[in-house]
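Researcher: Go.
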Amino acid sequence: MKHVFLVNKFSLKSKTNQVRAIVEEVCKKRNIDYIIEQNSEEESTEDILKRYQDTKDIIIAIGGDGTINRVLNGIAGTQNVLGYIPYGTGNDFYRVNRELLTEEINKIDLVRINEKYFINTACFGIDADIANSDEIVHSKLIPKKQRYNMSLIYHFLKYKAKQMTVDVHSDITKGEFTTVIVCNGRYYGGGYKVAPHSTLDDGLVDVYLVNKTSKPNMAKVIMSIKSGAHEKAKIVKKLQTDKLTIASPTPISSNIDGEKLTANEFNIEVIPKGIDVYYNQPLIDDILEEDKKLSLRRKK
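Model: Structure:
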């Protein structure tokens, strides 16, 4: 199996060449059979992945959760294995993997949402508005660790609950919701522990419904998510299912693993152990450590 590193130049930007050089150096030291691919204005991530539809390689996304999601959608249904080097703002999929994955190649659940796929979380309502706020979440003027919090504050002050219908095997809940969150993994928003007991391979998603509430109550729930204590809140309803539908009378936006998706209806279904994930912490550590050293040397 080749290690195919896919560099996202649009998220790495000025660090693109540095990261490419580090990956090459680390792979040579570790005697890894590798290829480095890079997207561009002329060739998108999707275009690159089409060349690997009939291979059996480890496709390693270098970027954030959104980059991982685009690679996931490009290789779903193939024999390729999903890998990653966490270079994003939130890196929430990396967090859950450090807690749950024990093998180098791990079979985990894949979740279909309409014609797309995700492996970590899909959120609707205020959480989607926060995550989709590109001008804040990707702002160079705000430290990475504070971008989600800044977006949270901005949308909290202006937010209005959204009308949604949630159908879980004909058990229908209809009303105005502050947020609805569908979790395969455990984290979102750069470390908020939204699904503290979720696993990646049980064939189920954990679903959290948060009803419309006052701003003070909303603030309490949001803050309790940081530690995973929100499951005890009265306005939070938790479900587990392998299939559900979320609908709205008007189009609403969701955020699936860092990517925006807008529709009137979202049909969500778990594909048990539908994707293989490559987890190599020593390789990740080597690349990130070399990047840190090189960045520090260049600042001097």
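Model: The chain has a mean pLDDT of 90.
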